């Protein structure tokens, strides 16, 4: 006990030593932060370009005619759009305008829905009439071999891919999409199927909130 | 400085994974395909070597009381740099290693070597310590990757070779035990490797004792 007190006093007694510690650590942090700033400057544009390319690939997968389609930069997310996505059971990430020949032909909407193991990030294409043109999964952590069947678009018993079944559906004609009613689930992967459905509902709600 | 001794220590007698039993998290988590193991091993080797050199170079001006904090700042700096470079130039690897690159900051191999070696030794010796310990780590990762991939998925060289980088199929798809690519397989394979290593390391000593 007496030893502990002694060592404590030793440190406290010398303010110069404490200042030295602080200054050394602070200086190191400043130098490291400066170097990181430099590295960030070199890599920032490159990383942004790669992310944009990945986003574009995902968007191309959900439009009707990928070769003649261009995409705008991400639109600004308004409160109405975010609220619409939330009410439908998903979270809005970003919205991109789909341009065919420079004209607006709908939106590619990136939403996050919760699956059985975590978040499912997905891209949903919606045309100008509010009809789904395609669904693709950007990132997920569903159970390999079960929920992953939904993510990899395995065929349902009807032969249509589980993600492809959303094509042609719209909020106007089908109302809220529900597993068991107007959406089929992969057996054993109901939660993942429901997650994807919630994502599509959210995307349709967002599309409605834009136009 | 004794290069030969350091080399032997890094790869065998003081192997970071099999003997010091450091850095277990990443060892279990990422060793499911050849590409992952190689990438993680190289990333750790680079970071370990750089941080060893810097820590050794500044060891005389680092006050004893805050040395761990200083080590962590230096290590975190290098890890962030490597993370940014990987994202910019090897996006496929960055995507498949995911959060385990930033987590190298808390990989105890690096802090362990900083405290145990480079804080007490010269720059050149610390440089080689980083390289040899890194190689030792990489080799164990590769061994685990090869075993788990072969028995768990039936392929070799996943991420690099084969169609779409899916690896070269050696065992037909219906036979492999998928369990081995799950965390439980990581524990089993690592345990077997550690056991084999301990057996191999203890053997010569026994022989010598017997011959006496």
Question: Can you tell me about this structure?
Answer:
The complex is a heterodimer of chains A (211) and B (212). In chain A, 32% of the residues are buried. Chain A is built from six helices and five strands; from the N terminus they run ααβαββββααα. Chain A has 211 residues and is α+β, with helices and mostly antiparallel strands. Chain A is 45% helix and 21% strand. The mean pLDDT of chain A is 83. Chain A has a five-stranded antiparallel sheet, sandwiched between helices. Chain A is elongated, with a radius of gyration of 25 Å. Chain A folds into two domains: 45 residues; 150 residues, no CATH class. In chain A, a hairpin with a 4-residue loop joins strand 4 and strand 5. By secondary structure, chain B is mainly alpha-helical. Chain B has a domain of 144 residues. In chain B, strands 1-2 form a two-stranded antiparallel ribbon. In chain B, helix 3 packs antiparallel against helix 7. The mean pLDDT of chain B is 84. At the A-B interface, helix 2 of A face helix 4 of B.
Count of individual helical segments of chain B: 8
Strand line-up in the sheet with most strands of chain B:
1-2
DSSP strand content of chain A:
15-25%
Number of discrete helical segments of chain A: 6
The number of domains of chain A is 2
Structural class of chain A: alpha+beta
Q: State which percent range the strand residues of chain B make up.
A: under 5%
Give the overall form of chain B: globular
Mean pLDDT of chain B: 84
**The biggest beta sheet of chain A, please?**
5 strands, antiparallel
Low-confidence runs of chain A = none
Termini of chain B, distance in Å? Answer: 32 Å
Overall helicity of chain A: 40-55%
Which strand order spans the largest sheet of chain A, edge to edge or round the barrel?
1-2-3-4-5
Q: Total strand count of chain A, please?
A: 5
Classify the secondary structure makeup of chain B into a structural class: mainly alpha
